[in-house]
Write a structure and sequence with these properties.
Radius of gyration: 32 Å
Helix content: over 70%
Number of strands: 0
Order of helices and strands: HHHH
CATH class of one domain: Mainly Alpha
Strand content: under 5%
Length: about 180
């Protein structure tokens, strides 16, 4: 005689019930895996965006550092020019020009890699606007004044334009990096 099949409460055999349970657990495991993959993709995207923002922040800080170096060299040049040391003044102006060129090169990279997030875009644009005013109305004008040996115009430009524009640029970078 054959053995009678044991039936579960719903009329399924124990073997069928165990298989159904195994299939259900496998489906749950696949669902959890799919959710984990989705979260990992989101995490990867967020990490990449954070890396991009960090790179732009680093570039902005390097631009500011190069322009501050240029200002220091120009102040040295003005002092040397006022003291009658034209050769030393010319050397300081050359250092300033090199710093400005480095800042412009870094800015080109900064500008070519714009942020496009809702939060980052306005802050990024603030840095661009502040840079344009600072470089056009402040730094380049001071370099031109010192290149021609006009330290009196340099001091006037530094006091009236460059200092406030430099502060605005630094503030826009601080806002951007925070």
């Amino acid at each position: 005689m054959s053995q009678p099949k044991i039936k579960g409460r719903r009329g399924l055999s124990v073997k069928a019930s165990l298989m159904l349970t195994l299939v259900l657990f496998m489906a749950l495991l696949l669902a959890v895996g799919a959710i984990a993959v989705a979260f990992l993709q989101q995490s990867l995207q967020a990490t990449q965006q954070l890396g991009t923002v960090a790179q732009r922040s680093s570039e902005a800080s390097r631009i500011n550092s190069a322009l501050l170096s240029a200002r220091a060299s120009l102040l040295t040049a003005a002092h040397e020019q006022a003291e009658g040391q034209a050769g030393n003044a010319r050397t300081a102006v050359t250092r300033a020009e090199q710093s400005v060129k480095a800042a412009k090169d870094i800015f080109r990279d900064f500008q070519n890699n714009a942020l496009d997030s809702e939060e980052g875009r306005p802050l990024y644009m603030g840095v661009l606007r502040a840079y344009r005013g600072y470089i056009d109305d402040g730094i380049d004008t001071m370099v031109d004044a010192m290149a021609s040996g006009d330290y009196i115009s340099f001091y006037m430009i530094n006091t009236e334009y460059d200092a406030p524009l430099g502060d605005a640029f630094t503030e826009s970078i601080t806002t951007f990096t925070d």
